[in-house]
């Protein structure tokens, strides 16, 4: 409808302005979400619990300025975070992860799960139509994030680096597909898999 109204209508003098505004808005939301998550990731991994208030303020700003359907996105974020906490807790219990904080996963990691989940509707949205891309991105990039956390002394591995990478690749390949399926179900977006 937008295409027909603004592009094909010869009487529309503002069509270029409308297109630029739409592209600018989409790019800004994407950029804000990516940069916000990167700042949250680094701050939480490097400074730990000290950075939690800043990350929570960033999440609140995300909801206020970026989120379109706040209630549905909040429910998705909470659901993904609960799954993430469960998975990381099991991995800690099994000795794959060793955190300096002790028996349970640290609060900064729980906060990081909230921050990660906020990317599903925005900066990771480009993955929504391809299960293959979801699985590959999860299997290849997520383990690298944990390895970076290991290099920054936020987490240690109880197994070899290669074994940990393989375990995380399998888990995250499945998790990403699950997360986007949940997104489709909870936010009621129709996915077209290619």
Strand order of the largest sheet: 1-2
Compute the number of strand runs: 2
Helix content class: over 70%
What Rg, in angstroms, do the CA atoms define?
A: 19 Å
Q: What general form does the structure show?
A: globular
Q: How many distinct domains? A: 1
- The helix-and-strand class reads mainly alpha
Assess the beta-strand content as a share of residues.
Answer: under 5%
Q: Round the mean pLDDT to the nearest integer and report it.
A: 86
**Poorly predicted spans:** 1-8
Order of helices and strands: HHHHEHHEH
The termini sit apart by 24 Å
* Count of alpha/pi helices: 7
Largest beta-sheet details: 2 strands, antiparallel
Name the descriptors.
194 residues, mainly alpha, two-stranded antiparallel ribbon, 2 strands, disordered N terminus
């Amino acid at each position: 409808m937008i295409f027909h109204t603004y592009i094909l209508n010869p009487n529309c003098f503002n069509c270029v302005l409308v297109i630029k505004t739409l592209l600018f808005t989409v790019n800004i939301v994407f950029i804000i979400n990516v940069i916000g998550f990167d700042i949250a990731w680094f701050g939480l991994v490097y400074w730990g619990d000290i950075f939690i208030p800043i990350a929570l303020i960033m999440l609140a700003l995300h909801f206020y300025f970026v989120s379109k359907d706040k209630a549905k996105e909040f429910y998705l974020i909470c659901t993904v975070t609960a799954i993430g906490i469960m998975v990381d807790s099991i991995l800690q219990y099994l000795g794959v992860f060793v955190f300096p904080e002790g028996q349970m996963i640290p609060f900064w990691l729980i906060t990081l799960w909230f921050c990660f989940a906020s990317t599903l509707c925005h900066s990771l949205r480009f993955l929504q139509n391809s299960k293959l891309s979801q699985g590959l991105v999860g299997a290849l990039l997520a383990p690298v994030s944990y390895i970076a956390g290991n290099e920054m002394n936020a987490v240690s591995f109880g197994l070899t680096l290669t074994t940990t990478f393989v375990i995380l690749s399998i888990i995250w390949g499945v998790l990403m597909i699950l997360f986007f399926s949940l997104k489709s179900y909870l936010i009621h977006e129709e996915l077209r898999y290619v």
